Amino acid sequence: MGEIFGRERRLTEGRWIVAILLLGSLLTFFVDAMFDVGYWGRSFFKLFLFLGMPLVLHFSFHEVNVFTVLETKREKGSFRKSLLLGALVYVLLMGLYLVVQQFISLETIEGAISENFMVDRNNFVLVALYISFVNSFLEEFFFRGFGYLKLRRSFGKGSAYVFSSLLFALYHIGMVDGWANPLITGLAILGLFLSGIFFNLLNDKNGNIYNSYMVHMFANFAINTIGLHMFGIIHLPFLG
Fold it and tell me: Of 62, 65, 66, 163, which shows the fewest CB atoms inside 10 Å?
């Protein structure tokens, strides 16, 4: 009887986690599409959703302890491996951009970012720092910590892998829409889905989000390097 009750409780917890993940992603997408709140307005709203809603569930279901995904576990060489992997991801993304840059217009992207998020040359450095360090952590906490590590307890690894990664990819559509032609945009969304799978894999053993956070941070370093070049803050001749 206790086992059945425990299973039902885990399923109930899982349904709440799914509902919060869907609500957080959809509301963020809705705000992007319907309101001109700028990057910082959007960021504060997302901070409220991505941290606030999991905390509500944390205090409602004590078994859903969201803070466990922040616990550090001493594993020899873990930080060094994540650092090296992050550096490799940086190099790979910069190389990938060099391959596809002929299909991408930085002027179009710059215009879309300026119009939709009110980000320009004057504030991009601050935005880039926030994206790299804070936004990376926030997304890892929501999609990998809450969306995978906690969800797998209710529905198993396979379902948690796919659901959290798919939602992570679709959540970005509002951000990248209009940056490039539909094919490149579709490939970017596919890449984000595969990245979500990879990030979950990095966290599987340790049960915390720090490995994926490190790699995610370096991925954003690469994107922001291109952004710094795009806004003319730095000049990198090899980027065109």
Answer: 62
In order, the DSSP letters of 86-111 are: HHHHHHHHHHHHHHHGGGB-HHHHHH
Q: pLDDT-based confidence at 1, cuts 50/70/90? A: very low
How many angstroms separate the CA atoms of 189 and 168, rounded? Answer: 9
10 Å Cβ neighbour count for 119?
Answer: 22
Q: How many CB atoms lie within 10 A of CB 216?
A: 24
* Residue 193 CB coordination number (10 Å): 18
Angle between helical axes of 106-117 and 210-230 (0-180°, round to 10): 110
CB under 8 Å to 237, separation ≥6 — which residues?
none
Match 């209009």 to its residue by tokens: 178
Burial of residue 156 (number of CB atoms within 10 Å: 0-12, 13-18, 19+) = exposed
The span from the CA of 197 to the CA of 161, in Å, is: 6
- Nearest one of 90, 81, 121 to 229, comparing CA atoms: 121
* Residue range 181-199, pLDDT digits in tens: 677 778 888 989 999 999 9
Dihedral angle over CA of 31, 104, 223, 219, nearest 10: 100
